[in-house]
Amino acid sequence: MTCTARPTFTEIHEWVTEYEKHDSVAHATVHVLRQDDPEHLESGMVAIHLNHGPASISLNVDCERTWTAALSERSGEFPLSGGNLVALGEELYTTGKLCEYLQARTDGAPDSAPEAALR
Questions:
Q1: Beta 67-71 vs 29-34: how paired, if at all?
Q2: Measuring CA to CA, how many Å separate 3 from each of 14, 41, 51, 92?
Q3: What is the pLDDT of residues 46-77, one digit of tens each?
Q4: What pLDDT digit, counting tens, does each position of 68-118 carry?
Q5: What is the pTM of this model?
Q6: Residue 72 gets which letter from DSSP?
Q7: 3 state DSSP class of 57
Q8: Cα(92)–Cα(94) distance, rounded to whole angstroms?
Q9: Measured distance CA(38)–CA(31) in Å, rounded
């Protein structure tokens, strides 16, 4: 089932660009990507490559317009110095702030789903 309530790729890209004008995800690289799900090609996702841990985080929005973060699974241990552990914590904290920002923008954006007009 295709849901039309999700923000579009263009909206997500604009929101991330605006966010990065006043804030940033510490030490990490942020990319807005198109969904590869054939039912949601008009929507997007945000991929964050963590520089202080062997992982990535993807921020996705579902048909109920809720943003969630998924940390990619990595096997094995990775030792960190105290400074790198703090930097990894900053990456996670600021990624969480971006996720909250995207949720706030989504909550404030017009809901394009026809069923939303019935609420």
A1: unpaired
A2: 21, 11, 34, 29
A3: 999 988 887 899 999 998 999 999 998 777 78
A4: 999 987 777 878 899 989 999 999 999 999 999 999 999 997 654 433 333
A5: 0.83
A6: P
A7: strand
A8: 6
A9: 20
